Amino acid sequence: MEKRDVDVAIIGSGTAGLVAYQRVRKVTDRVVMIEADQYGTTCARVGCMPSKLLIAAADSAHQMANASLFGVTAGQVRIDGQAVMSRVRRERDQFVEGVIRSVEKLPKEHRVLGHARFVDPHRLMVERDRTSDLEIQAERIIIATGSRSAVPKMLEEARDRLVINDNIFEWQDLPDSVAVFGPGVIGLELGQALSRLGVRVRMFGIGGAVGPIRDDAIRDYALETFNQEFPLDPDADVKHLERTGDGVAITYRHPEQGQITETFDYVLAATGRQPNVDGLDIQNAGVDLEDSGVPSFDRYTMRCGDSHIFIAGDANQLKPLLHEAADEGRIAGDNAAAYPEVRAGLRRTPLAIVFTDPQIASVGLTLDEVDEECKGCFAVGEVSFEDQGRSLIMGKNWGLLRVYARQGTGQFLGAELFAPAAEHMAHLLAWSVQRRLTVSEMLEMPFYHPVVEEGLRTALKQLNRNLSIGQEPAEGCMECGPGV
Ligand SMILES: Cc1cc2nc3c(=O)[nH]c(=O)nc-3n(C[C@H](O)[C@H](O)[C@H](O)COP(=O)(O)OP(=O)(O)OC[C@H]3O[C@@H](n4cnc5c(N)ncnc54)[C@H](O)[C@@H]3O)c2cc1C
Ligand SMILES: NC(=O)c1ccc[n+]([C@@H]2O[C@H](COP(=O)([O-])OP(=O)(O)OC[C@H]3O[C@@H](n4cnc5c(N)ncnc54)[C@H](O)[C@@H]3O)[C@@H](O)[C@H]2O)c1
Protein backbone atom coordinates (compact mmCIF):
# COMPACT_ATOMS: atom_id res chain seq x y z
CA MET A 1 0.00 0.00 0.00
CA GLU A 2 1.23 3.48 -0.89
CA LYS A 3 2.00 5.75 2.05
CA ARG A 4 2.39 9.52 2.23
CA ASP A 5 3.55 11.82 4.99
CA VAL A 6 2.30 15.44 4.97
CA ASP A 7 2.05 18.49 7.22
CA VAL A 8 -1.61 19.13 6.39
CA ALA A 9 -4.28 16.89 4.86
CA ILE A 10 -7.54 18.52 3.72
CA ILE A 11 -10.56 16.26 3.27
CA GLY A 12 -12.90 17.70 0.63
CA SER A 13 -12.22 20.00 -2.32
CA GLY A 14 -15.34 22.18 -2.11
CA THR A 15 -15.24 25.90 -1.36
CA ALA A 16 -14.00 25.45 2.22
CA GLY A 17 -11.37 22.88 1.21
CA LEU A 18 -10.06 24.93 -1.71
CA VAL A 19 -9.76 28.12 0.33
CA ALA A 20 -8.05 26.19 3.13
CA TYR A 21 -5.64 24.69 0.59
CA GLN A 22 -4.66 28.17 -0.72
CA ARG A 23 -3.88 29.33 2.83
CA VAL A 24 -1.91 26.22 3.81
CA ARG A 25 0.06 26.34 0.57
CA LYS A 26 1.45 29.77 1.52
CA VAL A 27 3.29 28.09 4.39
CA THR A 28 4.08 24.53 3.34
CA ASP A 29 4.34 22.42 0.22
CA ARG A 30 3.69 19.23 2.22
CA VAL A 31 -0.09 19.43 1.77
CA VAL A 32 -2.66 17.12 0.21
CA MET A 33 -6.33 17.71 -0.67
CA ILE A 34 -8.51 14.60 -0.91
CA GLU A 35 -11.74 14.52 -2.94
CA ALA A 36 -14.14 11.56 -2.82
CA ASP A 37 -16.36 12.48 -5.73
CA GLN A 38 -15.80 15.14 -8.40
CA TYR A 39 -14.01 18.46 -8.55
CA GLY A 40 -16.20 21.50 -9.18
CA THR A 41 -17.79 22.26 -5.75
CA THR A 42 -21.38 21.90 -4.60
CA CYS A 43 -21.95 25.63 -5.17
CA ALA A 44 -21.09 25.53 -8.87
CA ARG A 45 -22.31 22.01 -9.70
CA VAL A 46 -25.61 21.53 -7.83
CA GLY A 47 -26.06 24.52 -5.52
CA CYS A 48 -25.93 28.32 -5.68
CA MET A 49 -25.21 28.70 -9.39
CA PRO A 50 -27.61 26.32 -11.18
CA SER A 51 -30.40 27.30 -8.77
CA LYS A 52 -29.88 31.00 -9.56
CA LEU A 53 -29.82 30.17 -13.28
CA LEU A 54 -33.22 28.48 -13.01
CA ILE A 55 -34.52 31.46 -11.02
CA ALA A 56 -33.24 33.85 -13.71
CA ALA A 57 -35.32 31.99 -16.32
CA ALA A 58 -38.35 32.16 -14.01
CA ASP A 59 -37.85 35.90 -13.43
CA SER A 60 -37.83 36.45 -17.16
CA ALA A 61 -41.05 34.46 -17.66
CA HIS A 62 -42.69 36.29 -14.77
CA GLN A 63 -41.74 39.72 -16.08
CA MET A 64 -43.09 38.91 -19.52
CA ALA A 65 -46.31 37.48 -18.13
CA ASN A 66 -46.85 40.65 -16.10
CA ALA A 67 -45.69 43.20 -18.66
CA SER A 68 -49.28 44.17 -19.49
CA LEU A 69 -49.25 46.12 -16.19
CA PHE A 70 -47.05 48.62 -18.04
CA GLY A 71 -49.11 48.55 -21.22
CA VAL A 72 -46.58 46.27 -22.90
CA THR A 73 -47.68 43.05 -24.50
CA ALA A 74 -45.39 40.45 -25.98
CA GLY A 75 -48.13 38.08 -27.10
CA GLN A 76 -48.58 34.67 -25.54
CA VAL A 77 -45.65 33.80 -23.25
CA ARG A 78 -44.33 30.38 -24.24
CA ILE A 79 -41.87 28.52 -22.06
CA ASP A 80 -39.59 26.06 -23.83
CA GLY A 81 -38.65 23.73 -20.98
CA GLN A 82 -35.87 22.07 -22.94
CA ALA A 83 -34.29 25.44 -23.75
CA VAL A 84 -34.64 26.58 -20.13
CA MET A 85 -32.87 23.48 -18.79
CA SER A 86 -30.31 23.54 -21.55
CA ARG A 87 -29.23 27.10 -20.64
CA VAL A 88 -29.13 26.22 -16.94
CA ARG A 89 -26.73 23.35 -17.69
CA ARG A 90 -24.69 25.23 -20.28
CA GLU A 91 -23.94 28.16 -17.95
CA ARG A 92 -23.59 25.84 -14.94
CA ASP A 93 -20.97 23.84 -16.85
CA GLN A 94 -18.96 27.02 -17.42
CA PHE A 95 -18.87 27.69 -13.68
CA VAL A 96 -17.88 24.09 -12.96
CA GLU A 97 -15.20 24.08 -15.64
CA GLY A 98 -13.73 27.27 -14.17
CA VAL A 99 -13.32 25.55 -10.80
CA ILE A 100 -11.95 22.36 -12.37
CA ARG A 101 -9.41 24.35 -14.39
CA SER A 102 -8.08 25.99 -11.24
CA VAL A 103 -7.90 22.65 -9.38
CA GLU A 104 -6.07 21.05 -12.28
CA LYS A 105 -3.43 23.76 -12.11
CA LEU A 106 -2.49 22.57 -8.63
CA PRO A 107 0.52 20.24 -8.40
CA LYS A 108 -0.54 16.62 -9.00
CA GLU A 109 1.06 15.46 -5.75
CA HIS A 110 -1.24 17.85 -3.85
CA ARG A 111 -4.49 16.23 -5.03
CA VAL A 112 -5.83 12.77 -4.40
CA LEU A 113 -9.13 11.35 -5.65
CA GLY A 114 -10.65 8.92 -3.18
CA HIS A 115 -12.78 8.58 -0.05
CA ALA A 116 -10.91 9.44 3.16
CA ARG A 117 -11.52 7.90 6.59
CA PHE A 118 -9.77 8.31 9.91
CA VAL A 119 -7.68 5.34 11.04
CA ASP A 120 -6.40 7.26 14.06
CA PRO A 121 -6.07 10.98 14.91
CA HIS A 122 -3.11 11.43 12.55
CA ARG A 123 -3.75 8.75 9.93
CA LEU A 124 -6.20 8.71 7.02
CA MET A 125 -6.96 5.81 4.72
CA VAL A 126 -8.02 6.87 1.23
CA GLU A 127 -9.97 4.33 -0.85
CA ARG A 128 -9.19 4.98 -4.50
CA ASP A 129 -11.11 3.65 -7.48
CA ARG A 130 -8.36 2.83 -9.90
CA THR A 131 -5.33 2.36 -7.66
CA SER A 132 -4.66 0.76 -4.33
CA ASP A 133 -5.57 2.43 -1.06
CA LEU A 134 -3.38 5.27 0.13
CA GLU A 135 -2.39 5.82 3.75
CA ILE A 136 -1.74 9.43 4.69
CA GLN A 137 0.08 10.37 7.86
CA ALA A 138 -0.76 14.02 8.59
CA GLU A 139 0.41 16.32 11.35
CA ARG A 140 -2.76 18.40 10.98
CA ILE A 141 -6.10 17.60 9.30
CA ILE A 142 -8.90 19.83 8.00
CA ILE A 143 -12.35 18.30 7.59
CA ALA A 144 -14.16 20.15 4.77
CA THR A 145 -16.52 17.42 3.58
CA GLY A 146 -19.66 19.53 3.02
CA SER A 147 -23.23 18.27 3.39
CA ARG A 148 -25.83 16.30 1.46
CA SER A 149 -29.63 16.24 1.22
CA ALA A 150 -31.42 14.69 4.17
CA VAL A 151 -34.37 12.80 2.68
CA PRO A 152 -37.16 11.57 5.01
CA LYS A 153 -37.98 7.86 4.63
CA MET A 154 -41.54 8.53 3.51
CA LEU A 155 -40.36 10.39 0.40
CA GLU A 156 -38.37 7.38 -0.77
CA GLU A 157 -41.74 5.87 -1.75
CA ALA A 158 -41.60 8.19 -4.77
CA ARG A 159 -38.71 5.99 -6.01
CA ASP A 160 -37.54 7.05 -9.50
CA ARG A 161 -39.71 10.21 -9.23
CA LEU A 162 -37.86 11.51 -6.18
CA VAL A 163 -35.48 14.37 -6.99
CA ILE A 164 -33.09 16.46 -4.94
CA ASN A 165 -30.88 19.39 -5.87
CA ASP A 166 -28.19 16.94 -7.07
CA ASN A 167 -30.29 15.70 -9.99
CA ILE A 168 -32.99 18.31 -10.69
CA PHE A 169 -30.67 20.35 -12.93
CA GLU A 170 -30.15 17.28 -15.12
CA TRP A 171 -33.79 17.39 -16.24
CA GLN A 172 -33.89 17.67 -20.03
CA ASP A 173 -37.32 19.30 -19.89
CA LEU A 174 -39.63 20.84 -17.32
CA PRO A 175 -42.25 18.46 -15.91
CA ASP A 176 -45.94 19.34 -15.60
CA SER A 177 -46.10 19.09 -11.82
CA VAL A 178 -43.86 18.84 -8.75
CA ALA A 179 -44.68 18.35 -5.07
CA VAL A 180 -42.05 20.19 -3.05
CA PHE A 181 -41.36 18.89 0.46
CA GLY A 182 -39.70 21.49 2.68
CA PRO A 183 -40.52 25.21 2.34
CA GLY A 184 -36.98 26.05 3.46
CA VAL A 185 -34.42 27.96 1.43
CA ILE A 186 -34.02 25.41 -1.37
CA GLY A 187 -37.73 24.53 -1.52
CA LEU A 188 -38.84 28.17 -1.79
CA GLU A 189 -36.22 29.13 -4.37
CA LEU A 190 -36.74 26.12 -6.64
CA GLY A 191 -40.49 25.78 -5.99
CA GLN A 192 -41.29 29.39 -6.87
CA ALA A 193 -39.02 29.24 -9.93
CA LEU A 194 -40.71 26.06 -11.21
CA SER A 195 -44.14 27.55 -10.58
CA ARG A 196 -43.23 30.68 -12.56
CA LEU A 197 -42.01 28.44 -15.37
CA GLY A 198 -45.48 26.94 -15.64
CA VAL A 199 -45.03 23.82 -13.49
CA ARG A 200 -47.91 22.99 -11.12
CA VAL A 201 -46.34 23.18 -7.68
CA ARG A 202 -47.65 22.34 -4.21
CA MET A 203 -45.41 22.80 -1.21
CA PHE A 204 -45.60 20.80 2.01
CA GLY A 205 -43.85 21.77 5.24
CA ILE A 206 -43.81 20.68 8.86
CA GLY A 207 -43.82 22.80 11.98
CA GLY A 208 -44.92 26.06 10.32
CA ALA A 209 -41.58 27.51 9.23
CA VAL A 210 -41.31 29.52 6.01
CA GLY A 211 -37.73 29.71 4.78
CA PRO A 212 -35.29 30.96 7.41
CA ILE A 213 -37.75 33.68 8.60
CA ARG A 214 -37.80 34.14 12.38
CA ASP A 215 -39.98 37.25 12.70
CA ASP A 216 -43.66 36.18 12.76
CA ALA A 217 -44.87 39.40 11.09
CA ILE A 218 -42.59 38.76 8.11
CA ARG A 219 -43.36 35.04 8.06
CA ASP A 220 -47.13 35.61 7.93
CA TYR A 221 -46.74 38.20 5.16
CA ALA A 222 -44.46 35.92 3.15
CA LEU A 223 -46.74 32.91 3.59
CA GLU A 224 -49.74 34.85 2.31
CA THR A 225 -47.73 36.18 -0.65
CA PHE A 226 -46.36 32.79 -1.72
CA ASN A 227 -49.84 31.29 -1.41
CA GLN A 228 -51.06 33.72 -4.06
CA GLU A 229 -48.72 31.97 -6.52
CA PHE A 230 -48.78 28.31 -5.43
CA PRO A 231 -50.30 26.41 -2.49
CA LEU A 232 -47.90 26.26 0.46
CA ASP A 233 -48.96 24.56 3.68
CA PRO A 234 -46.12 25.07 6.18
CA ASP A 235 -47.61 22.50 8.58
CA ALA A 236 -49.08 19.96 6.20
CA ASP A 237 -50.80 16.76 7.20
CA VAL A 238 -49.55 14.25 4.62
CA LYS A 239 -51.14 10.83 5.05
CA HIS A 240 -49.69 8.77 2.27
CA LEU A 241 -47.35 8.92 -0.69
CA GLU A 242 -46.90 6.28 -3.36
CA ARG A 243 -45.47 5.79 -6.83
CA THR A 244 -48.29 5.08 -9.25
CA GLY A 245 -48.40 4.54 -13.00
CA ASP A 246 -48.92 8.28 -13.56
CA GLY A 247 -46.40 9.65 -11.14
CA VAL A 248 -46.60 10.05 -7.37
CA ALA A 249 -49.97 10.08 -5.61
CA ILE A 250 -49.98 12.12 -2.41
CA THR A 251 -52.85 11.95 0.06
CA TYR A 252 -53.05 14.94 2.36
CA ARG A 253 -55.49 17.05 4.33
CA HIS A 254 -56.45 20.06 2.21
CA PRO A 255 -57.38 23.17 4.28
CA GLU A 256 -60.82 23.49 2.61
CA GLN A 257 -61.48 20.21 0.82
CA GLY A 258 -60.54 17.76 3.59
CA GLN A 259 -58.55 14.66 2.70
CA ILE A 260 -57.66 14.50 -0.98
CA THR A 261 -55.25 12.65 -3.23
CA GLU A 262 -53.31 14.59 -5.85
CA THR A 263 -50.84 13.18 -8.35
CA PHE A 264 -47.56 14.86 -9.28
CA ASP A 265 -44.88 13.98 -11.83
CA TYR A 266 -42.09 14.42 -9.28
CA VAL A 267 -41.40 14.87 -5.59
CA LEU A 268 -38.64 17.34 -4.75
CA ALA A 269 -37.06 16.68 -1.35
CA ALA A 270 -35.82 20.00 0.05
CA THR A 271 -36.07 18.91 3.66
CA GLY A 272 -32.70 20.06 4.95
CA ARG A 273 -29.10 18.90 4.67
CA GLN A 274 -26.91 16.69 6.82
CA PRO A 275 -23.17 17.09 7.32
CA ASN A 276 -20.86 14.56 5.63
CA VAL A 277 -19.15 13.41 8.81
CA ASP A 278 -20.74 9.97 9.05
CA GLY A 279 -18.56 8.44 6.33
CA LEU A 280 -15.31 9.52 7.96
CA ASP A 281 -14.97 6.96 10.77
CA ILE A 282 -14.87 10.10 12.86
CA GLN A 283 -14.85 8.01 16.06
CA ASN A 284 -11.19 7.25 15.29
CA ALA A 285 -10.25 10.95 15.16
CA GLY A 286 -9.96 11.28 18.93
CA VAL A 287 -12.22 14.36 19.14
CA ASP A 288 -15.40 14.96 21.15
CA LEU A 289 -18.57 14.66 19.11
CA GLU A 290 -21.93 16.46 19.41
CA ASP A 291 -25.14 14.39 19.30
CA SER A 292 -25.29 15.12 15.57
CA GLY A 293 -21.95 13.33 15.10
CA VAL A 294 -20.21 16.62 14.24
CA PRO A 295 -17.02 17.23 16.25
CA SER A 296 -17.24 19.98 18.89
CA PHE A 297 -15.29 22.96 17.58
CA ASP A 298 -14.56 26.62 18.21
CA ARG A 299 -16.30 28.92 15.69
CA TYR A 300 -13.47 31.46 15.81
CA THR A 301 -10.55 29.06 15.26
CA MET A 302 -12.41 26.13 13.63
CA ARG A 303 -10.36 23.85 15.87
CA CYS A 304 -11.91 20.65 17.25
CA GLY A 305 -11.27 20.75 21.01
CA ASP A 306 -7.56 21.12 21.70
CA SER A 307 -6.63 18.83 18.83
CA HIS A 308 -4.71 19.27 15.56
CA ILE A 309 -7.99 18.75 13.63
CA PHE A 310 -10.05 21.63 12.15
CA ILE A 311 -13.50 21.61 10.56
CA ALA A 312 -14.83 24.13 8.00
CA GLY A 313 -17.85 24.70 5.74
CA ASP A 314 -21.15 22.81 5.66
CA ALA A 315 -19.51 19.84 7.41
CA ASN A 316 -19.75 21.66 10.76
CA GLN A 317 -23.44 22.65 10.30
CA LEU A 318 -22.86 26.13 11.76
CA LYS A 319 -23.78 28.39 8.83
CA PRO A 320 -24.17 26.39 5.64
CA LEU A 321 -23.60 29.32 3.28
CA LEU A 322 -20.99 29.92 0.63
CA HIS A 323 -19.29 33.00 2.10
CA GLU A 324 -19.18 31.34 5.53
CA ALA A 325 -17.60 28.20 4.04
CA ALA A 326 -14.93 30.39 2.43
CA ASP A 327 -14.27 32.29 5.69
CA GLU A 328 -14.08 29.07 7.68
CA GLY A 329 -11.75 27.51 5.11
CA ARG A 330 -9.48 30.54 5.44
CA ILE A 331 -9.43 30.37 9.24
CA ALA A 332 -8.94 26.58 9.31
CA GLY A 333 -6.20 26.80 6.66
CA ASP A 334 -4.32 29.56 8.47
CA ASN A 335 -4.52 27.74 11.78
CA ALA A 336 -3.61 24.31 10.41
CA ALA A 337 -0.60 25.91 8.70
CA ALA A 338 0.55 27.79 11.82
CA TYR A 339 -0.29 25.03 14.31
CA PRO A 340 0.40 24.82 17.26
CA GLU A 341 -0.16 28.58 17.15
CA VAL A 342 -3.91 28.97 16.75
CA ARG A 343 -5.61 32.35 16.33
CA ALA A 344 -9.21 33.55 16.27
CA GLY A 345 -10.24 34.53 12.75
CA LEU A 346 -12.69 37.17 11.56
CA ARG A 347 -16.34 36.13 11.72
CA ARG A 348 -18.59 38.57 9.92
CA THR A 349 -22.07 39.82 10.73
CA PRO A 350 -24.65 37.15 9.89
CA LEU A 351 -26.14 37.74 6.44
CA ALA A 352 -28.43 35.37 4.55
CA ILE A 353 -30.40 36.00 1.37
CA VAL A 354 -33.04 33.81 -0.25
CA PHE A 355 -33.49 34.46 -3.97
CA THR A 356 -37.26 34.31 -4.11
CA ASP A 357 -39.40 37.20 -5.34
CA PRO A 358 -39.70 39.20 -3.15
CA GLN A 359 -36.36 38.16 -1.72
CA ILE A 360 -36.02 37.14 1.92
CA ALA A 361 -33.01 38.36 3.89
CA SER A 362 -31.84 38.24 7.48
CA VAL A 363 -29.11 40.38 8.93
CA GLY A 364 -27.40 40.46 12.32
CA LEU A 365 -29.38 39.18 15.28
CA THR A 366 -32.81 37.61 14.89
CA LEU A 367 -35.75 39.10 16.78
CA ASP A 368 -35.44 36.45 19.53
CA GLU A 369 -31.70 37.00 19.82
CA VAL A 370 -32.24 40.78 20.07
CA ASP A 371 -34.77 40.21 22.85
CA GLU A 372 -32.33 37.97 24.72
CA GLU A 373 -29.33 40.26 24.15
CA CYS A 374 -31.20 43.42 25.23
CA LYS A 375 -33.23 41.70 27.99
CA GLY A 376 -36.39 43.06 26.40
CA CYS A 377 -35.09 46.66 26.03
CA PHE A 378 -35.22 47.08 22.28
CA ALA A 379 -37.45 48.67 19.64
CA VAL A 380 -38.67 47.65 16.19
CA GLY A 381 -39.25 49.78 13.09
CA GLU A 382 -41.25 48.58 10.11
CA VAL A 383 -42.12 49.52 6.58
CA SER A 384 -44.47 47.98 4.07
CA PHE A 385 -43.41 48.21 0.42
CA GLU A 386 -47.02 48.29 -0.81
CA ASP A 387 -46.96 52.10 -0.92
CA GLN A 388 -43.25 52.58 -1.59
CA GLY A 389 -42.47 54.88 -4.51
CA ARG A 390 -39.76 52.99 -6.37
CA SER A 391 -41.43 49.62 -5.75
CA LEU A 392 -44.69 50.96 -7.20
CA ILE A 393 -42.84 52.26 -10.27
CA MET A 394 -41.38 48.79 -10.88
CA GLY A 395 -44.69 47.01 -10.21
CA LYS A 396 -43.01 45.21 -7.30
CA ASN A 397 -44.84 46.93 -4.48
CA TRP A 398 -45.23 44.22 -1.89
CA GLY A 399 -43.13 43.14 1.05
CA LEU A 400 -42.30 44.03 4.61
CA LEU A 401 -39.07 45.03 6.34
CA ARG A 402 -38.46 45.12 10.10
CA VAL A 403 -35.41 46.60 11.78
CA TYR A 404 -34.29 46.15 15.40
CA ALA A 405 -32.19 48.34 17.72
CA ARG A 406 -31.19 48.60 21.37
CA GLN A 407 -32.99 51.05 23.66
CA GLY A 408 -30.75 53.70 25.16
CA THR A 409 -27.77 53.56 22.82
CA GLY A 410 -29.84 53.24 19.65
CA GLN A 411 -27.37 50.64 18.34
CA PHE A 412 -28.66 48.89 15.25
CA LEU A 413 -28.70 45.11 15.82
CA GLY A 414 -30.50 43.34 13.02
CA ALA A 415 -33.27 43.13 10.45
CA GLU A 416 -35.48 40.77 8.55
CA LEU A 417 -36.74 41.59 5.07
CA PHE A 418 -39.22 40.20 2.59
CA ALA A 419 -38.85 42.94 0.05
CA PRO A 420 -37.87 43.99 -3.45
CA ALA A 421 -34.09 44.39 -3.85
CA ALA A 422 -33.59 42.81 -0.42
CA GLU A 423 -30.20 41.45 -1.55
CA HIS A 424 -28.88 45.02 -1.78
CA MET A 425 -30.56 46.53 1.27
CA ALA A 426 -29.41 43.52 3.33
CA HIS A 427 -25.80 44.33 2.50
CA LEU A 428 -26.18 47.95 3.65
CA LEU A 429 -27.80 46.71 6.85
CA ALA A 430 -25.16 44.03 7.49
CA TRP A 431 -22.39 46.57 6.99
CA SER A 432 -24.16 48.90 9.45
CA VAL A 433 -24.41 46.14 12.09
CA GLN A 434 -20.77 45.24 11.61
CA ARG A 435 -19.68 48.90 11.90
CA ARG A 436 -21.82 49.10 15.07
CA LEU A 437 -23.74 52.10 13.75
CA THR A 438 -26.61 53.64 15.66
CA VAL A 439 -29.89 54.21 13.87
CA SER A 440 -29.19 57.96 13.94
CA GLU A 441 -25.84 57.41 12.21
CA MET A 442 -27.51 55.29 9.56
CA LEU A 443 -30.01 58.08 8.93
CA GLU A 444 -27.14 60.53 8.38
CA MET A 445 -26.18 58.58 5.24
CA PRO A 446 -27.34 59.78 1.79
CA PHE A 447 -30.49 58.30 0.27
CA TYR A 448 -31.15 58.86 -3.42
CA HIS A 449 -34.59 59.30 -4.96
CA PRO A 450 -36.51 57.34 -6.09
CA VAL A 451 -35.01 54.09 -4.74
CA VAL A 452 -36.24 51.20 -2.58
CA GLU A 453 -33.77 52.29 0.12
CA GLU A 454 -36.13 55.20 0.83
CA GLY A 455 -38.45 52.52 2.25
CA LEU A 456 -35.62 51.39 4.48
CA ARG A 457 -35.17 55.00 5.64
CA THR A 458 -38.85 55.14 6.61
CA ALA A 459 -38.41 52.00 8.75
CA LEU A 460 -35.26 53.45 10.36
CA LYS A 461 -37.06 56.71 11.16
CA GLN A 462 -39.88 54.80 12.76
CA LEU A 463 -37.34 52.74 14.69
CA ASN A 464 -35.63 55.90 15.99
CA ARG A 465 -39.03 57.23 17.00
CA ASN A 466 -39.80 53.98 18.85
CA LEU A 467 -36.42 54.27 20.60
CA SER A 468 -37.57 57.76 21.75
CA ILE A 469 -34.57 59.21 19.89
CA GLY A 470 -36.05 60.58 16.65
CA GLN A 471 -39.21 62.54 15.94
CA GLU A 472 -42.49 61.09 14.78
CA PRO A 473 -42.13 60.79 10.97
CA ALA A 474 -44.63 63.08 9.27
CA GLU A 475 -47.56 61.36 7.57
CA GLY A 476 -47.02 61.35 3.78
CA CYS A 477 -43.65 63.09 4.26
CA MET A 478 -42.50 64.77 1.03
CA GLU A 479 -38.82 64.86 1.98
CA CYS A 480 -38.10 62.32 -0.67
CA GLY A 481 -40.84 63.26 -3.09
CA PRO A 482 -43.83 60.97 -3.58
CA GLY A 483 -43.67 57.51 -1.99
CA VAL A 484 -42.28 56.40 1.36
C1 LIG B 1 -29.41 24.00 -4.05
C2 LIG B 1 -28.46 24.83 -3.21
C3 LIG B 1 -28.40 26.19 -3.41
C4 LIG B 1 -27.52 26.96 -2.65
N1 LIG B 1 -27.50 28.31 -2.85
C5 LIG B 1 -26.69 29.08 -2.10
C6 LIG B 1 -26.63 30.48 -2.32
O1 LIG B 1 -27.32 31.04 -3.18
N2 LIG B 1 -25.81 31.21 -1.54
C7 LIG B 1 -25.05 30.64 -0.54
O2 LIG B 1 -24.34 31.36 0.16
N3 LIG B 1 -25.07 29.30 -0.33
C8 LIG B 1 -25.86 28.51 -1.10
N4 LIG B 1 -25.87 27.16 -0.90
C9 LIG B 1 -24.99 26.59 0.14
C10 LIG B 1 -23.55 26.44 -0.41
O3 LIG B 1 -23.59 25.79 -1.66
C11 LIG B 1 -22.71 25.64 0.59
O4 LIG B 1 -22.75 26.29 1.85
C12 LIG B 1 -21.27 25.50 0.16
O5 LIG B 1 -21.19 25.03 -1.16
C13 LIG B 1 -20.53 24.53 1.11
O6 LIG B 1 -19.20 24.36 0.69
P1 LIG B 1 -18.30 23.22 1.36
O7 LIG B 1 -16.90 23.45 0.90
O8 LIG B 1 -18.54 23.17 2.82
O9 LIG B 1 -18.85 21.85 0.78
P2 LIG B 1 -18.79 21.22 -0.70
O10 LIG B 1 -18.63 22.20 -1.77
O11 LIG B 1 -19.97 20.30 -0.75
O12 LIG B 1 -17.46 20.35 -0.67
C14 LIG B 1 -17.31 19.20 0.11
C15 LIG B 1 -16.51 18.18 -0.68
O13 LIG B 1 -16.07 17.14 0.19
C16 LIG B 1 -16.12 15.91 -0.51
N5 LIG B 1 -16.14 14.82 0.49
C17 LIG B 1 -17.15 14.46 1.30
N6 LIG B 1 -16.77 13.41 2.08
C18 LIG B 1 -15.49 13.10 1.73
C19 LIG B 1 -14.56 12.12 2.17
N7 LIG B 1 -14.85 11.26 3.15
N8 LIG B 1 -13.35 12.08 1.57
C20 LIG B 1 -13.02 12.96 0.59
N9 LIG B 1 -13.87 13.93 0.16
C21 LIG B 1 -15.08 13.99 0.71
C22 LIG B 1 -17.39 16.03 -1.33
O14 LIG B 1 -17.37 15.14 -2.42
C23 LIG B 1 -17.34 17.50 -1.77
O15 LIG B 1 -16.70 17.67 -3.02
C24 LIG B 1 -26.70 26.35 -1.66
C25 LIG B 1 -26.74 24.97 -1.48
C26 LIG B 1 -27.61 24.21 -2.25
C27 LIG B 1 -27.63 22.72 -2.04
N1 LIG C 1 -29.86 31.51 -1.11
C1 LIG C 1 -29.10 30.79 -0.29
O1 LIG C 1 -28.23 31.32 0.40
C2 LIG C 1 -29.28 29.32 -0.20
C3 LIG C 1 -30.03 28.63 -1.14
C4 LIG C 1 -30.21 27.27 -0.98
C5 LIG C 1 -29.62 26.62 0.10
N2 LIG C 1 -28.88 27.30 0.98
C6 LIG C 1 -28.29 26.63 2.17
O2 LIG C 1 -28.64 25.26 2.17
C7 LIG C 1 -29.21 24.93 3.42
C8 LIG C 1 -30.16 23.79 3.25
O3 LIG C 1 -31.35 24.21 2.58
P1 LIG C 1 -32.69 23.41 2.74
O4 LIG C 1 -33.77 24.20 2.09
O5 LIG C 1 -32.49 22.00 2.36
O6 LIG C 1 -32.88 23.36 4.31
P2 LIG C 1 -33.70 24.31 5.28
O7 LIG C 1 -33.29 23.91 6.65
O8 LIG C 1 -33.61 25.74 4.89
O9 LIG C 1 -35.22 23.90 5.05
C9 LIG C 1 -35.70 22.62 5.23
C10 LIG C 1 -37.20 22.72 5.40
O10 LIG C 1 -37.76 21.43 5.29
C11 LIG C 1 -38.74 21.27 6.29
N3 LIG C 1 -38.92 19.84 6.52
C12 LIG C 1 -38.11 18.98 7.19
N4 LIG C 1 -38.63 17.73 7.14
C13 LIG C 1 -39.76 17.81 6.42
C14 LIG C 1 -40.75 16.86 6.02
N5 LIG C 1 -40.65 15.58 6.35
N6 LIG C 1 -41.79 17.30 5.29
C15 LIG C 1 -41.90 18.60 4.94
N7 LIG C 1 -41.01 19.53 5.29
C16 LIG C 1 -39.96 19.15 6.02
C17 LIG C 1 -38.19 22.06 7.46
O11 LIG C 1 -39.19 22.37 8.40
C18 LIG C 1 -37.63 23.29 6.74
O12 LIG C 1 -38.65 24.24 6.53
C19 LIG C 1 -29.86 26.22 3.87
O13 LIG C 1 -30.02 26.25 5.28
C20 LIG C 1 -28.89 27.26 3.41
O14 LIG C 1 -27.89 27.44 4.39
C21 LIG C 1 -28.71 28.64 0.86
Automatic annotation (TrEMBL):
Cofactor(s) essential for the protein: FAD
Domain spans labelled FAD/NAD(P)-binding: 7-329
This protein's UniProt keywords: FAD, Flavoprotein, Oxidoreductase
Domain of life of the source: Bacteria
GO terms assigned for molecular function: dihydrolipoyl dehydrogenase (NADH) activity
Pfam families in alphabetical order: Pyr_redox_2, Pyr_redox_dim
Pyridine nucleotide-disulphide oxidoreductase dimerisation domain: residues covered: 353-459
Protein name: Dihydrolipoyl dehydrogenase
